[in-house]
């Protein structure tokens, strides 16, 4: 006989929220989000896509978050914090796939960053190297799609490793 309680638990297992801005309780997201799709339909840059299990998830390969707050306003389940609070704790990081780190002159990402969080520092014996200014990066993801080698990802800040 099928244990329905166990099956329900399995269905409602924790799903990592797809980094939506202003999520008030990320841990409870998969219990409370009904997957209605409202947030995705109003997103002005169409970056909210269907992630794991059909739950909404931000995909920076599609574009950047403009912090318009439309997703939060549209949610019937009230899963989002007030607009006056910080939207998320995440920043961009650049991997070794970066062309500059391989000695090739490339500054494409610098131009895509409106808050000027990507700085290129001269390097002896090599091309200028990119660094992310932690205080300036707002995690908007605008740099992600610009990188020709997909070297940039936006990740939750690990406070312990800063
Ligand atoms: S704040 Fe605006 S641009 Fe950002 S994910 Fe929400 S709806 Fe999209
Ligand atoms: S609007 Fe709210 S309940 Fe609907 S899919 Fe988006 S986060 Fe989930
Ligand atoms: S995530 Fe946004 S603010 Fe941060 S480096 Fe990329 S473009 Fe700049």
From TrEMBL:
Compartment annotation: Cytoplasm
InterPro entries: 4Fe4S_Fe-S-bd, 4Fe4S_Fe_S_CS, Fe-S_Ferredoxin, NapF
The UniProt record lists the keyword Signal: no
Binding-site residues for [4Fe-4S] cluster 2, renumbered to this chain: 65, 68, 71, 75
Binding-site residues, [4Fe-4S] cluster 1: 33, 36, 39, 43
Predominant location category: cytoplasm
Record flagged with keyword Cytoplasm: yes
Every 4Fe-4S ferredoxin-type domain range: 24-53, 54-85, 128-157
Annotated binding of [4Fe-4S] cluster 3, by residue: 137, 140, 143, 147
Keywords: 4Fe-4S, Cytoplasm, Iron, Iron-sulfur, Metal-binding, Repeat
Sections of the chain in a coiled coil: none
Cofactor or coenzyme needed: [4Fe-4S] cluster
Entries under Pfam families matching the protein: Fer4_7
Function summary: Could be involved in the maturation of NapA, the catalytic subunit of the periplasmic nitrate reductase, before its export into the periplasm.
Quaternary structure and partners: Interacts with the cytoplasmic NapA precursor.
Family of this protein: Belongs to the NapF family.
Name of the protein described by the UniProt record: Ferredoxin-type protein NapF
Organism classification: Bacteria, Pseudomonadati, Pseudomonadota, Gammaproteobacteria, Vibrionales
